[in-house]
Specification:
A hairpin with a 5-residue loop joins β2 and β3. The longest helix has 26 residues. The strands form two sheets. A five-stranded mixed sheet has the order 6-5-4-7-8, with helices on both faces. A three-stranded antiparallel sheet has the order 1-2-3, sandwiched between helices. The chain is α/β, with parallel strands linked by helices. The protein starts with a helix and ends in a 28-residue tail after the last helix.
Length: about 425
């Protein structure tokens, strides 16, 4: 029995095997550096106070400055030190911060405050950035604590992550209020996505309305992201009015998904700006109007038309598509005709730009990446958190955007002639 029991015990994985493994990975380099951190921080703060008083610790007179003259320091005196706990990427350490009283012109004194170590500061900015970045990488607060436990000595809890996130919110508020008057935007890409958030302690679906801008040099930039109840005309009008109020210049082209709410809002804000309907969204609409057995054939005909090499070929294949599907399944032809020439606005531009103009894929890819990051959370804690998290992924560099295809020819204007819709 003893031998059997021993084998069973050995075969069972240790519940704390990982912690024992990493605890025994002694690194003399890391240990030495962390022991010196306290000394370096204390020396830096003492040097800061020496510069204010213009004399070293225990010094009774001002030090000569460069050139032999005596530097005029602030009158005051040191009076001991206080112990502060600071957590950084180097871990958690206790430091002795010197104290001093500075003389004022009114004869009173004030407590000296270090500029390097702010009052009530418990973490370095680099540590806060690391915590926020880990959260943004697609994990929840519990897993953030586990991931950073070895680095911070277990000092990162749910409350710490929440406080760091509140700092991010101040930057988010400033971003939402910033002026857009100096943004050289020539195009807008607009689309929405649905996410699950917690409202009144119940999981609820809301829409995030996203606006990307394309600058004159072709670089894409996030201009707005608003949480709304849906993609109605009123919701999109709120987003567009806010952009206009903050100084956004009139765009030269709009790329949209084709939703009726967005189309109506655009007509009210910029009625004569050329619009490109997303060809991917229209493809999905066509398939929704036909039985599954026709999907492959519809897709082949549609792609031959949309991805034709020249404008003339697009017109020819469109006419053929309409004639064929009017007879075979009229609902498909009617759905294509509903989009009108807005589905082919891209053909009025240089062919090098067609790939980036045909679809709203630039935003669709952001939606996919955003949802991949929040998958572990299932339901976000609030509607405001959803929009802020989307923005933070871009603002922190977790997600980056490149220039649009064909950016070298962005200065070229659309030709005036629309595609021939006759069939």
């Amino acid at each position: 029995m003893t031998s059997v029991t021993t084998k069973l015990e050995l075969s069972q994985p240790s519940t704390d095997g990982c912690s024992q493994l990493f605890d025994n990975w002694f690194d003399p380099i890391e240990t030495c550096i962390r022991e010196r951190v306290r000394e370096l921080i204390e020396e830096m703060i003492r040097g800061e106070l020496d510069a204010v008083l213009s004399r070293p610790r225990y010094g009774r007179c001002a030090r000569p400055a460069d050139g032999g003259e005596v530097a005029a320091g602030v009158a005051g005196h040191r009076h001991g030190s206080r112990v502060r706990t600071l957590m950084g990427t180097f871990g958690k350490t206790e430091i002795a911060v010197p104290r001093a009283r500075l003389n004022n012109s009114d004869g009173k004194t004030t407590e000296w405050k270090s500029q390097a170590l702010r009052s009530y500061q418990r973490r370095t900015l680099a540590a806060d950035a690391l915590i926020a970045s880990t959260y943004l990488s697609g994990t929840n607060t519990r897993r953030v604590r586990r991931a950073l436990r070895a680095l911070f000595g277990g000092a990162v809890g749910k409350d710490v992550v929440s406080r760091v996130w509140r700092k991010v919110k101040s930057d988010w508020d400033a971003w939402n209020a910033r002026s857009l008057a100096d943004e050289p935007i020539v195009r807008l890409i607009l689309d929405g996505t649905v996410v699950r958030v917690r409202l009144d302690r119940k999981a609820t679906s809301i829409s995030l309305l996203v606006v990307l801008g394309v600058r004159q040099d072709g670089q894409k930039v996030l201009l707005a992201i608003k949480q709304m109840g849906g993609e109605s005309t009123a919701a999109w009008r709120t987003v567009l009015d806010d952009l206009i109020k903050r100084g956004l210049r009139r765009p030269e082209l709009l790329i949209i998904d084709g939703g009726t709410g967005l189309e109506s809002a655009i007509a009210a804000a910029w009625d004569d700006v050329p619009v490109q309907r997303c060809t991917v969204h229209k493809h999905r609409n066509l398939l929704a109007h036909a039985p599954e057995r026709l999907h492959e054939e519809i897709t082949a005909d549609y792609n031959d038309m949309i991805y034709a090499a020249t404008r003339e070929e697009i017109e020819t294949r469109r006419k053929a598509f309409i004639r064929k599907w009017r007879l075979k399944h009229r609902a498909v032809a009617d759905s294509l005709e509903e989009a009108g020439d807005r589905l082919f606005t891209f053909s009025r531009l240089p062919p090098s730009q067609w790939r980036s103009v045909r679809t709203t894929n630039a935003i669709e890819r952001l939606h996919e990446e955003f949802k991949r990051r929040i998958k572990t959370q299932t339901v976000l804690p609030s509607a405001d958190t959803a929009a802020m998290l989307f923005w933070a992924l871009l603002a922190s560099g977790q997600i980056s955007m490149r220039k649009v295809d064909g950016w070298q020819t962005l200065a070229e204007k659309l030709i005036a002639q629309s595609i021939d819709l006759a069939a």
